[in-house]
Amino acid sequence: MHLIIAEKNISAKRIAQILAGDEKVKTTKDGSVFTYSFDNRTVVGLKGHVVEVDFEPGYANWRSTTHTPRTLIDAGTVKKPTEKKIVNLIQKLAKKADLVTIATDYDTEGELIGKEAYELVRAVNPDVRVNRARFSAITPAEIRAAFENPVELDFDLAAAGEARQTVDLMWGAALTRFLSLAARRGGRDILSVGRVQSPTLAMIVDREREIENFVPQTYWVLSLTTEKDRTTFEARHTTGRFTDRDAAFTAKERTKEPLVVTEVKEGQKVDRAPTPFDTTTFIVAAARLGFSAANAMRIAEGLYMNGYISYPRTDNTVYPGSLNLNGILETLKGGVFDKDVAWVQQNRRSKPTRGKKESTDHPPIHPTAAATREVLGEEQWKVYELVVRRFLATLSPDAKWATTRYTFDASGETYRAAGGRLIEAGWRRVYPYSEAKETILPAIGQGEKLPIREVKLEEKETQPPARYSQSRLIQVMEELGLGTKSTRHEVIGKLISRRYVEGNPLRPTLVGRAVIDALDNHAATITEPEMTRTLEEHMQLIKQSRRSRDDVIHESRQMLHQVFDNLEAHESEIGNEIMEQTAEERTVGSCPVCGRDLRIRHSGASQFIGCNGYPECRFNISLPGTAWGRAIRTDETCEKHNLAHIRLIKKGARPWDLGCPLCNHISSNIEALYLMPSMTDDLLQRLHEQHIYTVSDIAGMPPEELAEALGIGIEEARGLAGEAEDALEVLRRRSELRKLVRKIVPPRKGRSHAKIFKSLLDEGIGDLHALSQAEVATLKKAGIPETAANELLDEARRLSGERALREAGVPAVSLKKYLEAGISRPEDLCYLPIPYLAGKTGINPETVHKHVDLVCRHLGRPTPPKITRQAIERGRKELLEIPGLGEATLQRLHLAGVYNAETLLEADPEMVSSITGIPKARIHDYIGHLK
DNA sequence: GCAAGGTC
Predict the structure, then answer these.
(1) Distance from residue A47 (CA) to nucleotide B8 (C1'), in Å?
(2) A324 and A365 in one domain?
(3) How many Å does it take to go from CA A636 to C1' B2?
(4) Structurally, how many domains does chain A consist of?
(5) Which nucleotide across the nucleic acid strands is nearest to A48, CA versus C1'?
(6) Does residue A337 sit in the same domain as residue A364?
């Protein structure tokens, strides 16, 4: 069997289709992995890398005293499978193979992926022949040629990739651990460092510093307006920017008629058709349509997977000769592009445009099939159309402009006006994404004199450089060689998720700056694009067999050791600097009570804003729990309280902007404060002036302090504190009710728990007790479905009964026994006969009587008389002597209060029958027997 | 828990 291993499933499928020719390809699904078979060949796709390098076991603990971050430099590495199903399948197939062809992508990383597959094959089949097919595009011609002339795996090329893997891992992991430990940051807050991410972050930080340090310069621009044939137009002074104010004003004063045309220059300009899309130029073009880099790539990948466009991750800007451009044009005919395609076919340029970069991995991004807006949907269509139109543009002739330039003299001051007119639209007919802005000037002859309608002197300021947009950053990363076509947009995502940068355009956060500062000062190598360049040079040498992989890694290890010499000598200094710089990220503003810093604090699932002066100053602002998202500070500030706004961020959820935390704190506590009977608008204002915002603030304050703060008497303050305590109790009960509702009632569209809870409150149901007495109909009106309403009522009755029993003083051990026997309502204890209660729970009747007494007093009802254990035992014997009366009947009689001969004789048979369900006739029989 | 590189 001939096993062919491709880089990914879709390649495997298409390679199989091409090689099979007319033969049918058999698709088999093994677990979740597809294989494609024909003749005696089987093609299987990897998923890129299916193994990963990691340190050998023993380095998992970051805080190990023996395996410190530095020891990672010399730690051994292992390759471990990340895609177990694929690895297993490859090895299963490899055992049966007599030839294996590696058909991964034609680039360094592809060669390494191929070598990984080779090693998996070798591990189970040491002798099988393994060769390599190389192709730049999955087209019939290329694929057939590649398989007709297979070559050998290039182990040097793969070794270059391995060197990169090892170097990246050891630098990244060692520095990440070192920095995170020094700054005492763990979990979600680790400080990551890497060959690509750190220089990228450094660019953003540097740009921000440039902007901050920018000193604007004032300059002046001088222009005039003139007219010919009733067309007015502008001419600018040939000194584009006057930096000297006096010179500008003098020039303006001197500008006088006559305005004489001294030179007329007409020409033509070629406006070159754009070059084929590689990933970067595609992302930049998509950004102009409003797509973020990640979004553009996501959509392009979708279009690729569905066969509409070619592979979107490519560095190539030159169509390979094997690509059938005419065929693609034919494919696009008939749809909305029909006219454009026809035009391109008629006006085709001799050779398609070509960019500067030519590579072997994939062709430039181009359409591969026709599609319609209806099938794709708006977003995908926009991206697809962009790719189609770009493709058409690369086959279209250049555009041509006619240019005109007039030079004027106004009493010694020279002015110039430039015009441009599109004479041949060329590619612009099919690629309307960049506007062709024409400036049409009237025809004027040399020596002509024109009037001056207006002379305008504008004062302007030089502007700081712009922040990087995502697409601009990707462009610059490419220029510097940072990252690859597949990873550049992901690197930006990584910087955002590490909270190093935010916003669009991108701005660094305090943590981002602190990390770059620390690295710049002590490990500058990793923040410079130079490192990538050197690594690439070394990889080049490995590919050419001029250096070995191990030699390159060894040199890198030594450099990293030197870096660590410096880092370890300054560990605490580095850590302190980062911690100091980042303390500000948690600081929301200053404490309104004492003026010290207010900081966001986290403890487990709860978070709040606390004063740095704690415990002397206890001022704090509550925040929603971390389940709603982790609180971070934003750049917006509340004008009223001078505090930074808070945002709650949660993975996979839209961020929740809370706004000013104090405004939020105040408004969410007002309703609770009005639960206090003495609360008035005036009192509320006085409390707020003293920065007392919550009921628990009042309840927790010593009355003396409260009295002083409000300028009231101590008794009045005590009264307020008492009211606050009561309000707290109401709130506590409400939250208990809320919890139960949330637990039992399933949330539904349009009926949030908050809404249900509000309707319940409106119905006067504010705690479990009130709920336990409610009607099902009321609950249904509040939006609770009937089954849930019944369950809710049962649960509320049980819970509130339990509470009442506890409050009445029934000890916990006994309470448990009552509950287990299904007795949870206090009324049950008052009305059910003691013998029955004792029998059901196994509690001593005397003790039961004590409980019954407690509960009856609590409910304000009379306590039934005591019945002793002996009395019950005696009565039991008496009753069991009656023929036909057994243990079961006895228990039922207990329920009706009948526990001995006497009570049976006194009982009303009708009543006993209705309570116990024993036929009346039989009760008469029992009584008759006794008589 | 760490990188960067594939792919989804």
Answers:
(1) 9
(2) yes
(3) 33
(4) 5
(5) B6
(6) yes
Residue at minimal CA–C1' distance from B6? A48
Across all strands, nucleotide nearest A59 (CA–C1'): B2
Give the domain CATH number at A382.
1.10.290.10
Closest CA to A115 of A5, A259, A232, A272: A5
- Per-residue model confidence (pLDDT) at position A438: 93
Average pLDDT on A838-863 reads 82
In angstroms, the CA of A643 and the C1' of B8 are apart by 43
pLDDT band at A651 (very low <50, low <70, confident <90, very high): low
The integer distance in angstroms from the CA atom of A490 to the C1' atom of B7 is 13
Judge if A288 and A250 occupy the same domain. no
- The model's pLDDT over A215-231, given as tens digits with 9 standing for 90+, comes to 999 999 999 999 999 99
Are residues A126 and A9 part of one domain? yes
A313 CA vs B2 C1’ separation (Å): 26
Among A554, A579, A604, which residue terminates a domain?
A579
> Nearest residue (Cα to C1') for B4?
A168
What pLDDT digit, counting tens, does each position of A196-210 carry? 999 999 999 999 999
Torsion of CA A757, A761, A764, A766, to 10 degrees: 70
Non-local CB neighbours of A161 within 8 Å, separated by 6+ positions: A108, A109, A111, A112, A115, A539
Say which residue the tokens 């030079």 belong to. Answer: A407
- Residues of A known to be catalytic: 311
Residue range A582-592, pLDDT digits in tens:
988 788 989 99
Instruction: Give the Å distances, CA to CA, from A472 to A252, A272, A468, A481, A683.
Output: 39, 22, 6, 14, 56
pLDDT higher than threshold 90 for residue A418: yes
CA distances from A628 to A188, A648, A657, A658, A812 (A): 16, 7, 11, 11, 36
Nucleotide nearest to A113 (CA to C1'): B6
Q: Which of A549, A579, A609 is the last residue of a domain?
A: A579
Same domain, A538 and A596: no
CATH number assigned to the domain comprising residue A556: 1.10.460.10
Residue pLDDT, tens place only, A234-258: 999 999 999 999 999 999 999 999 9
The answer to whether residues A899 and A872 touch, using CB atoms and an 8 Å cutoff, is yes
CA nearest to nucleotide B1 C1': residue: A187
Q: What is the pLDDT of residue A781?
A: 84
Whether A179 maps to a domain, the answer reads no
Euclidean distance between CA atoms A611 and A594, whole angstroms:
8
- Reduced 3-state DSSP string for A202-247: HHHHHHHHHHHHCCCCEEEEEEEEEEECCEEEEEEECCCCECCHHH
**Average pLDDT along chain A:** 91
Q: Residue A318 CA to nucleotide B3 C1', Å?
A: 31
Q: Which of the nucleotides lies closest to A535 (Cα–C1')? A: B4
- What H or E segment, with its residue span, contains residue A129? strand A129-132
- Assigned domain for A60 exists: no
- In degrees and rounded to multiples of 5, residue A606 shows phi and psi of -105, 155
Containing structural domain, residue A222: 218-266+402-420+446-461
Which of chain B's bases lie under 7 Å from a protein CB? 1-8
What value does the mean pLDDT take over residues A135-158?
92
Distance CA A383, CA A389 (A): 10
Which nucleotide across the nucleic acid strands is nearest to A166, CA versus C1'? B3
In a domain, A822, yes or no: no
Tell me, yes or no, whether A540 and A485 share the same domain: yes
Q: Are residues A407 and A393 part of one domain?
A: no
pLDDT digits (tens, 9 = 90+) for A473-527: 999 999 999 999 999 999 999 999 999 999 989 999 999 999 999 999 999 999 9
Residue range A643-653: average pLDDT?
81
| Across A28-32, average pLDDT | 92
Instruction: Specify whether A389 is located in the same domain as A331.
Output: yes
Q: How confident is the model at residue A312 (pLDDT cuts 50, 70, 90)?
A: very high
Residue A619 lies in a domain: yes
Smallest Cα–C1' distance to nucleotide B2: which residue has it?
Answer: A173
What is the number of H-type helices and E-type strands within chain A? Answer: 37, 24
What CATH number did the domain enclosing A231 receive? Answer: 2.70.20.10
CATH of the domain at A14: 3.40.50.140
